[in-house]
Amino acid sequence: MADGLTSVDDHLARILAAIEPLPAYPQPLMEALGLPVAEDVVAPINLPSFDNSAMDGYAVRHEDVVSASAESPVHLPVVGEIGAGKAKLVAMSPGTAVKIMTGAPVPAGADTVVPYEWTDRGVAQVRIERAPSYAQHVRPAGDDVQVGDVLVSEGTVLGPRHLGLLAAVGRASVLSRPRPRVVVISTGSELREPGTQLGHDSIYDGNSFLLAAAARKAGAIAYRVGIVPDEPRAFLDALDDQLVRADLVVTSGGVSQGDFDVVKEALAPLGSVWFGGVAMQPGKPQGFGLLGDDRTPIFTLPGNPVSSYISFEMFVLPAIRKLMARTPYARPTVTARLTHDLRSPDGRRQFARAEYSVDKAGPAVTPVGGHGSHLMGDLAQSDALVVVPEGVAQVAAGEQVQVLRLDEEF
Ligand SMILES: Nc1nc2c(c(=O)[nH]1)N[C@H]1C(S)=C(S)[C@@H](COP(=O)(O)OP(=O)(O)OC[C@H]3O[C@@H](n4cnc5c(N)ncnc54)[C@H](O)[C@@H]3O)O[C@H]1N2
Ligand code: MOO
């Protein structure tokens, strides 16, 4: 690319090539919510697992009640009662009835259930005033799920309905990859923790919240380490402390051309982290590499808040998803109509902050604010990014553009 820059696509390809999904292991069901399952889950039992009643009423033999009507009711002796989970009686003789509750097993000898509403609710004897059809209100075993059915296929992202089904067939855990543990470190001697006093030359650390929240939203467990000053020793010590609990590290700041660019200064000598420019705006200065014996991926993102967030979207989010084996890795674009003209630096892919909407003419996208990568206020007003390709310097209102919808699940 121009100016010795790496393209966005090449940088992402390099990152994804270096990252393998985390090993899968059995997770308790509730831990697996939102994670892709790493097995084909096969039903170990039928659902229902036995013939059971769909109504509160009486279990009967169909041929005993087939003639019942209001004018000519059928009377049957009631020989027992079966509640759900209280099934002492397992069989009944012809010409009798058994009280049965919803969900309770239909006794052998019965094939049909008469709901209370069609009877006098008798205790010793019941009067049946309407004839059910054969097998009415009986839910047969295996009606829903049969042993051996594939309930959830590998790669499915587990939602409430899947987890409910897995529990219903008796699974207490499911094979899936764990949530990646993402450590977020902000660098900069000018940074202060929100809620503390600000000096004349200091600013609050917004980025570690921005990035940790984005990591959590992506499905990771995020550890926000907070602020490390511009001292390489302090930065390396912080990294050392954190690597034990990290599947992925994200830093912000200290990667451009400044005199105190701590991240670059500390990591460049190791040789395992690439630093360079990526042909994008915002987010040009980037770094990526693998650290320590576990070869933990580290992303050194630029400090400007908008740059760090867009870099996260483009590079860290796909990496987190690959660790979870969640596809697609990168957020897909959608097409929308641009409502206002947009200019873009030539030779770089621009990500312009925008608001997505749907009007009478279809999906539309409206740029929000300027190009400055310090504009956090505008970023918070946006829910989309317009992607302007590298070779395009201007896009006119009315043209169709590619858009990343930042709050959409995918
Ligand atoms: N001579 C050059 N200067 C700069 C270049 C360049 O190519 N040549 N690139 C610019 C670009 S583009 C970016 S992006 C930034 C990246 O700088 P760093 O990653 O080294 O980040 P810092 O210098 O530490 O900070 C930049 C900016 O962001 C603010 N910041 C940093 N951390 C946070 C935080 N946690 N929360 C809120 N704001 C933060 C910081 O105060 C600075 O204003 O470099 C340009 N310079
Ligand atoms: O890349 Mo910087 O991120 O343009 O502000």
UniProtKB/TrEMBL annotation:
Listed EC numbers: 2.10.1.1
UniProt-listed Pfam families: MoCF_biosynth, MoeA_C, MoeA_N
Domain of life: Bacteria
Signal peptide: none
InterPro entries, alphabetized: MoaB/Mog-like_dom_sf, MoaB/Mog_dom, MoeA-like, MoeA_C_domain_IV, MoeA_C_domain_IV_sf, MoeA_linker/N, MoeA_linker/N_sf
Domain MoaB/Mog: 183-322
Cofactor(s) recorded in Swiss-Prot or TrEMBL: Mg(2+)
Role according to the record: Catalyzes the insertion of molybdate into adenylated molybdopterin with the concomitant release of AMP.
PANTHER family referenced in this protein's UniProt entry, alphabetically: GEPHYRIN (PTHR10192:SF5), MOLYBDOPTERIN BIOSYNTHESIS PROTEIN (PTHR10192)
Protein name, per record: Molybdopterin molybdenumtransferase
Lineage: Bacteria, Bacillati, Actinomycetota, Actinomycetes, Propionibacteriales
